Amino acid sequence: MNAVKKLLRRWETFLILFLILEFVVFGSANPKFLRPASIMTSIVNYISVCIIALFVTLVMITGGIDIQAASIIGLTSIIEGVLWSDAGMNIWVAVVIAAIAAAACGALSGFFVAYCGVQPMVVTLGGSFLYSGLALLVSGMSATPAYQGISGFPSKVGKTFVDFRFLGKGELFGIPMQIVIYVVLILLCAWILHRTKYGERLYLIGVNQQAAEYSGINTRLVIMSTYVLSAVSAALAGTLLTSNMNSAKYNHGSGYTLAIITAVVLGGTLNTGGKGSIFGTVLASLIICILRYGLPLCFGVSTQNLDLPVGIILVLVVLGREIAGRHLISQLMRRFRKNAA
Asked: Strand 160-161 to strand 156-157: parallel, antiparallel, or no bridges (unpaired)?
């Protein structure tokens, strides 16, 4: 009985129930919603947010925030396109160079946060404008107009996607390759966060950075590394998006910031740091994904208005936590006064 009560109190249990409720409501409204192929397609279309949210979780557990990752998606995409199309470089070499550029962006922002003490919100907000501007600058180096996007990447042999396009459109045992990559990243992040000393250090830094310093942890380097990992994940998301759409554009991922932060916060990660889980982030990402897929299909909601329910969810979760936190503090104060009396 105690185990059941403990399970019911977990935030992840609520997320699972909410996800089930979505399937019930949307499935009842439109049976087409329950088609497995359609559900997998909706996840693939949203996979960039899901991937980045995993690594932004690491950032937020330390007490930071990363709102620049969406800009790095576009920067990565256009670097790959320009290097391949205009410089004649091998596409895989271009992918590696783009990933290195993304890591440098993450390291730059992480340096200002960790070593200069600048607020993460300020740094990553500035980074989002800076890297969006760089992406637009790089797109100007191409003979292809920026609005059109660079296309024609190595594609098919017969009906089978190969080479670069296999990442975005290929399948492995009938499962989209992007979902396979996502599952691998889930396992990797869960292992890093919950089974390694690095993960323990992230939690300790989020709870009390000064105490972590006293225990011998190089907190600045650890904090900086989370921004590098987040940026590399954005580079991977940009590569998958480019491969899937067969188009490299400077503004890919421009509207993903709200969804990424919402997925992490809804997943149970505290914006003040010290608490969070990969499993919670995955569930929250799927909830938002299914919401954005089900509302237009079942209730005719315009795709232009889909940020509204996501924003409402973010506000409600943050507000609910604030109220719950104050209630908990008031309970502790009453107990303290009672014991003192």
From this structure: antiparallel
* Pair 61, 206: CB distance under 8 Å: yes
Report how far residue 301's alpha carbon sits from residue 296's, in angstroms, rounded to the nearest whole number. Answer: 4
- Residue span of the structural domain in which 294 resides: 37-303
Domain count within the chain: 1
274-315 residue pLDDT tens: 888 999 999 999 988 988 888 888 888 887 787 788 788 777
How many helices (H) and strands (E) would you count in the chain? 15, 4
pTM of the model: 0.88
Q: Name the pLDDT band for 77 (thresholds 50, 70, 90).
A: very high
Whether 104 and 270 have beta carbons less than 8 Å apart is answered as: no
Instruction: Name residue 248's beta-bridge partners.
Output: 150
The pair of structure tokens assigned to 321 is 């936590």
Q: How far apart are CA 33 and CA 23, in angstroms?
A: 8
Tokens standing for residue 10: 């977990």
**Measured distance CA(166)–CA(163) in Å, rounded:** 6
Q: First and final CA of the chain: distance in angstroms?
A: 34
Per DSSP, the three-state class of 269 is coil
CATH number at residue 217: 1.10.3470
How long a stretch of residues is the chain?
341
Return the DSSP state at 34. G
Compute the distance between CA of residue 136 and CA of residue 36 in angstroms, rounded to an integer.
38
| pLDDT in the model for residue 282 | 94
Q: Which of 217, 179, 175, 183 is nearest to 199 (CA)?
A: 217
Residues in contact with 122: Cβ distance below 8 Å, sequence separation at least 6, in sequence order: none
